């Protein structure tokens, strides 16, 4: 079921499954994705769960921020807090993928009484971090890249009716191979249904092009670990054996979780949209139904 949540004039779209009177679980997607990323596991979750999958600002069917506002992890976290207030939810669990785990780690670390349980899918907190020594150079580089993108019309900064693809099939095939790894045709087709916009000559991406560029101020690794170490709730971590963390990236973060249950599953970064989604759904159901 489609849902639109108005948070002080910014309209965020969402999809919901299950019983409205059930235990609320808020699902937060990853970078350049949308609520459709949870389609395959949502229908397999327990019927006593009320799943709310949000399109983050600038993604999916949700509004873009105006030119004077940014897309930092902190901004997304504040958006989620406002959504929770509008929906009058007192306590909830969070299901997050990739960048969504960075948002979830901020919320769970800073607002422990609000969060019952966490589920991370191929994510270990903030995905795009820098070292303390690189804060100044990162700011310089991000400002240069934004100016260059606007000047050269790169990354979607072209006129609103500019066509990027003549058919949906072209968009699906391009989305299959990204910096986050290769996904199947079916998984890509699922995601693009909520991230493609029809224009006179074909199609173009509907997400805000600013989210493609690096932020002026990125979270540092020490900050990311501090939020994780502040998480007090039980956390289910599901990582793909061929995903982003298969080479040991962010291994140091695993030791920062106080109460984590870790599973390595066959699959890449979007393993929850591929063949193993049944197993992932079963793990999530078991975790949410277990009393700790």
Kindly report the average pLDDT value: 94
- As laid out across the biggest beta sheet, the strand order is 1-2-4-3-5-6-11-12
What is the rounded Rg?
Answer: 18 Å
- DSSP strand tally: 12
Q: What is the H/E string?
A: EEEHEHEHEHHEEHEEHEHEH
What is the 3D form? globular
Please bin the fraction of helical residues. 25-40%
Structural class: alpha/beta
Characterize the main sheet.
Answer: 8 strands, mixed
Separate helix tally: 9
Strand content: 15-25%
Question: Which regions contain 5 or more consecutive residues with pLDDT less than 50?
Answer: none
- Alpha-carbon distance between the two ends: 31 Å
Q: How would you describe the overall organization of this protein?
A:
By secondary structure, this protein is of the alpha/beta class. It contains 9 helices and 12 strands. An 8-stranded mixed β-sheet has the order 1-2-4-3-5-6-11-12, with helices on both faces. A two-stranded antiparallel ribbon has the order 7-8. Strands 9-10 form a two-stranded antiparallel sheet. Helix 2 (about 75-85) crosses helix 3 and helix 3 (about 100-110) crosses helix 7. The longest helix has 18 residues, at about 135-150. The chain is globular and about 55 Å long.
């Amino acid at each position: 079921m489609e849902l639109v949540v108005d948070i002080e004039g910014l309209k965020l779209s969402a999809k919901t499954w299950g019983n409205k009177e059930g235990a609320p679980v808020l699902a937060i997607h990853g970078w350049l994705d949308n609520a459709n990323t949870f389609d395959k596991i949502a229908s397999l979750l327990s019927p006593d769960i009320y799943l709310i999958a949000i399109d983050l600002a600038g993604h999916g069917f949700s509004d873009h921020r105006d030119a004077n506002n940014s897309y930092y992890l902190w901004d997304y976290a504040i958006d989620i807090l406002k959504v929770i207030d509008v929906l009058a939810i007192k306590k909830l669990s969070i299901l997050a993928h990739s960048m969504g785990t960075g948002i979830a780690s901020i919320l769970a670390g800073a607002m422990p009484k609000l969060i019952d349980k966490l589920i991370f899918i191929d994510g270990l907190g903030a995905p795009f971090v820098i070292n303390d020594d690189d804060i100044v150079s990162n700011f310089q580089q991000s400002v240069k890249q934004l100016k260059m993108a606007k000047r050269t019309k790169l990354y979607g900064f072209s006129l609103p009716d500019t066509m990027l693809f003549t058919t949906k099939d072209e968009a699906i095939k391009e989305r299959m191979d990204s910096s986050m790894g290769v996904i199947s045709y079916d998984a890509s087709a699922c995601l693009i249904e909520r991230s493609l916009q029809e224009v006179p000559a074909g199609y173009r991406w509907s997400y805000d092009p600013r989210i493609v560029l690096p932020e002026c101020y990125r979270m540092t690794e020490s900050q990311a670990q501090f939020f994780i170490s502040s998480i007090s709730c039980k956390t289910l971590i599901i990582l793909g054996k061929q995903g982003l963390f298969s080479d040991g990236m962010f291994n140091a973060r695993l030791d920062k979780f106080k109460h984590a249950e870790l599973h390595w599953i066959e699959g890449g970064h979007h393993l929850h949209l591929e063949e193993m989604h049944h197993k992932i759904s079963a793990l999530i159901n078991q975790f949410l139904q277990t009393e700790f």
